[in-house]
Amino acid sequence: MMDRQLVEEVTRMVVERMGEKKPEARARLWIHNDKAPSYKAVGQEREEEEVGGKAKLSPFPKTEKSPSSRTEETEEDSGDLKELIKKTSARIGVGRAGVRPKTKTWLKFRYDHAAAVDAVFGQVDGSLLETLDLFTVRTKVTDQDTYIRRPDYGRRLSEEGEEKVRDACRKRPSVQIIVSDGLSSKAVDENLEDVYLSLNQSLEALGIETGTPFYIDKGRVAVMDHVGEILEPDVVCLLVGERPGLVSAESMSAYLCYRPRIGTIESERQVVSNIHRGGTPPVEAGAYLGSVIEKILDYGASGVELVKKEG
């Protein structure tokens, strides 16, 4: 037990310490309204605080509004932004509501996302294929989930499809045109007719013969290698739906390759992409493809090898 006299001494010292006058707590504040940074020390001043038993509150300093050219800059920036918006379909200048997108922007995003999903999981209009006289074969894909998870299945025709191609198509043509939905059935529905008819007209005008065209359900780009192995054409032209984005779910690409075979590497192909109403117009794309195919036949190469030989 602590000595009683010691307890009393400690208690007395504590009481004396508590009764001592505390130094004023002062802080340095940055006066940000001044042109040049300056500081002021502030602290508790009891004489000013205790007025009639109430604390005295200091008013906020009044600041004069200085003229600024920010308004003119904002108007100029707004004009530049409007020009950019006119030139792109990307989501720029859409604004926000607090930390969230605006309702209109969010609904448009959901709509475009739903359109992209529909493009991937949709089916090409059968009447369009009948109009263009394209018979249908399938790859090794059995359902859409397998198509998404196993791209390699979409690169080979099924046994039935391979047999049908051998029986129905002319062998060793100069150009073999094939069509596939790829990752966007909507791209085929929206663009195929114009691209296909324009391409055929262009090849006919150039005096280039074509083989028997057909449609491949759930095909990937490299399925053109399997077709090349079967029919041995000089050039294969694959019109295929591109992977949809949130800007366009109906974009088509045309892949071209000189004498493709199983094992062809990607650098040996070339592509004309972004074929849709908001990109390269389908009719224009078809006519252009004819001239590219003519060049491939003249040089006997495609892809990187064509660039080397051409230039």
Automatic annotation (TrEMBL):
Cofactor(s) annotated in UniProt: adenosylcob(III)alamin
InterPro entries: EutC, EutC_C, EutC_N
Pfam families from the UniProt entry: EutC (PF05985)
Start and end residues of each stretch annotated as Disordered: 37-84
Keyword Lyase: yes
Pathway this chain belongs to: Amine and polyamine degradation; ethanolamine degradation
Reactions it catalyzes: ethanolamine = acetaldehyde + NH4(+)
UniProt subcellular location: Bacterial microcompartment
Domain of life of the native organism: Bacteria
EC number(s) from the headed UniProt entry: 4.3.1.7
Biased composition (Basic and acidic residues): 62-72
Gene3D superfamilies in alphabetical order: Ethanolamine ammonia-lyase light chain (EutC), Ethanolamine ammonia-lyase light chain (EutC), N-terminal domain
Co-factor binding comment: Binds between the large and small subunits.
Keywords, alphabetical: Bacterial microcompartment, Cobalamin, Cobalt, Lyase
Function according to Swiss-Prot or TrEMBL: Catalyzes the deamination of various vicinal amino-alcohols to oxo compounds. Allows this organism to utilize ethanolamine as the sole source of nitrogen and carbon in the presence of external vitamin B12.
Family: Belongs to the EutC family.
NCBIfam families in alphabetical order: PRK05465.1 (NF003971)
Designated name of the protein: Ethanolamine ammonia-lyase small subunit
Organism: Salimicrobium album
Designated gene of the protein: eutC
